[in-house]
Write a structure and sequence with these properties.
Low-confidence stretches: none
Radius of gyration: 17 Å
CATH superfamily: Vaccinia Virus protein VP39
Strand content: 15-25%
CATH class: Alpha Beta
Oligomer: single chain
Number of helices: 5
CATH architecture: 3-Layer(aba) Sandwich
Length: 123
């Protein structure tokens, strides 16, 4: 199995974890780490690659595109929603730069005797 996830960096203070939750995607925080969750579900050979640089580049590209198309987006979204979305992207970018948010690609071998089906998750 393989998946990408945006997660809070390890070792954050409580304030840092709150910031990660505020600036990252919904349901960002888990009580455990992804490697621990995967191992407890029986997955083996759990590995990860850091993909934070790509995540940062994507956020920066979203901001640039938002700025280029701001007139049309303001018309469609309204000034308030446009502003909130733009601020949220900027806050995420700063959180990435500050080491609060990261993106990882996890790879693991499914538990023996289980089918992974088309979705890549053990069933």
């Amino acid at each position: 199995m393989s998946f990408l996830v945006i997660e809070a960096a390890e070792g954050l203070t409580d304030a840092g974890r709150r910031r990660a939750a505020r600036t990252g995607p919904d349901a960002l925080l888990t009580r455990s780490t992804y490697p621990s969750l995967l191992r407890s579900a029986g997955f083996r050979n759990v590995e990860f690659e850091d993909r934070t640089a790509e995540y940062r580049a994507t956020q920066q590209a979203w901001i640039a595109a938002t700025d280029r198309h701001s007139a049309g987006l303001r018309e469609v979204l309204g000034e308030r929603d446009f502003g909130e979305r733009r601020r949220a992207r900027a806050a995420s970018l700063v959180a990435i730069d500050d080491g609060v948010l990261r993106r990882r690609r996890y790879v693991a071998i499914a538990p023996t005797g289980r089918s992974t089906g088309d979705h890549g998750l053990a069933t």
